[in-house]
Amino acid sequence: MTAAASALAELRRPKILIRAARAGISEYCRERDLKRLVRHASASRDAMQPLLAEERRLETTRTAGGATYNIQRHVAVLTAILAEARLTPAC
User: Helix (H, G, I), strand (E, B), or coil: what is residue 16?
Assistant: First the structure.
């Protein structure tokens, strides 16, 4: 199991966030969305690590009750993580 796969398996988030992310998978466009979510890793082969780092940052802000928390961005990042996980071989 790769580091990204194990990090994904350990991911525990509120059901509503995961449901929203799953609903967005059908609209996910890798070329468009990666540019917006992870600027320095746009459409790279391994976008999972920067996405996971961004998601951890958003989760920390959410749980701390930070005023800068953006739920739309959090759902978009989770959607990208789920979609990228489907594209990655399970080696």
Answer: helix
